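WARN  no MSA supplied for this record, continuing single-sequence
INFO  ligand: TLP
INFO  echoing inputs
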Amino acid sequence: MQIDLRSDTVTQPTPEMWAAIRSADLGDDVLGDDPTVIALEELSAQLTGHEAALFVPSGTMGNQIALGVHCRPGDAAIFESDSHMVWYEGGAPAALSGVMTKTLPGIRGAMDPEAVRAAITKRTYHTPATTLLCLENTHNRSGGAVLDAATMGEFRQIADAAGIPVHLDGARIFNAAVGLGVPVSSLTSQVTTVNFCLSKGLGAPVGSVLCGPAAFIEEARYLRKRFGGGMRQSGMLAAAGIYALNHHVERLADDHLCAQKTGEALQGLPGICVDLDEIVTNFVMVHTDRPATDWIAPLEAEGVRALPFGSHRIRLVFHLDIPADAPGQIAEAFQRAGVGLSSGSPA
Ligand code: TLP
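INFO  complex generated
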């Protein structure tokens, strides 16, 4: 059996989740009467400590709707320079909302607060108005790194002082909460708006939820329609989301443990290096001596699928379809793949 560590997006619904999908009450969500979507939105708002919520097809759409509501064309928004919204959303801030991305380097996803303060410009004859600060938690390109509540609160204070909102790309905010051992609301209530994904570690097949003030969500609903994200009998997807929120949050700790054990099992293997201190949620970043792309096919031949994430880095993402005994198998696959590589000519 293949161990698919390409992403936590690859999970299949469990039998119980399928049962929840099959028995969902459906309506037409564009007409506003799908009871299961309404129930998911209410549950999401309650869990995150926000007034209202909107079910959207993807994390990308949730983030980009937020940007479109918070900003006007020509405005600037601040992002950590390795953030998903900058790297992996197809240039959407510029293409869809005319937003200028101001990027600041971070350490494990955390920007320097003083640099953030200094980057917030007011609209003058020369400078654009900076109208949004974006955060990402957990931080994908930093290997699932976590921002704690105090750090998030500090960014909120800086934004408040400048009179601008904070949007959180919380695709994996439940991993952050479980990793820190805190209720998710202690993180999500620090920000003006948050988008979280049901389709990642939570194990639902499709969907994300954008949460925020009621007036914001009303505008977001309008933009969702404009972006083509209005769905009809989407209660069947929302039912999977409700099931995931009720049954798959606590178990994220199992994925974190599996990641940690895999990191330990990979220690000392030739040709790779893993920093155990970097493993705080469900990601393991494997640093490779040879180009990361050289490893992918040999690993797949040994039963492990993974993605290169940078020239000499492979990302392993743990999720509910990965069995608890996988760490040993993964280490064996790396060992065997490495033997094949070292017998070939060096890159
Ligand atoms: N991330 C995907 C890829 O796009 C890289 C993955 O496999 O990790 N924010 C964050 C932090 C994300 O990691 C992702 C997906 C998204 C937003 C977008 O979610 P979707 O894929 O639902 O649009």
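The chain has a mean pLDDT of 97.
INFO  checksum written, moving to next record
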